[in-house]
Amino acid sequence: MEKRYKALRTIGTIYKILGVIAGVMTVLAILGFCATSIFGGAMFDALSSGRNGFSMPGMFGGVFGGIILSLGALIYGGGASVTLFALGEGVYLLIELEENTRVTAMLLKKQIQE
């Protein structure tokens, strides 16, 4: 049987690829936030120590800020990547549903004719 709905299959594949790319970018962002918070936190502490005890980065400086930013990126980016991938799978699901319905209708038509 020939493959139908080539455009829909292409759209589904594009959504799945975008979902994977969003997942990879999320992991890279999380690693970047962690690395920046660890290495940059020490730099901010050193720079702000000469300002009469005033801490420049405040509550979101250092490791704690990196954890908060990483959790935010994980929730947002993870949700976006899963949603995109699920949208691509949903397109494929609808195509398969149509193909199964068409085959069932053809088989029922043959049974009625016999």
Taken from the alpha-carbon principal axes, the silhouette is: rod-shaped
Largest sheet: none
Topology pattern, helix = H, strand = E: HH
Proportion of residues in extended strands: under 5%
Distance between the termini: 23 Å
Count of runs of 4 or more consecutive helical residues: 2
Over the alpha carbons, how many angstroms does the gyration radius reach?
Answer: 26 Å
pLDDT < 50 runs, ≥5 residues: none
Tell me the number of strands: 0
Q: Decide which structural class fits the backbone.
A: mainly alpha
Integer average pLDDT: 85
Q: How helical, in percent, are the residues?
A: over 70%
Explain this structure.
The chain is mainly alpha-helical and 114 residues long. It is built from 2 helices and no strands. It starts with 5 loop residues before the first helix and ends with a helix. The mean pLDDT is 85.
Notable features of this structure?
2 helices; 114 residues; mainly alpha
Give a brief rundown of this model.
This protein has helices at 6-48, 62-113. The chain has 114 residues and is mainly α. The chain starts with 5 loop residues before the first helix and ends with a helix.
What are the SSEs and their pairings?
Elements lengths: L5 H43 L13 H52 L1
Helix pairs in contact: 1-2
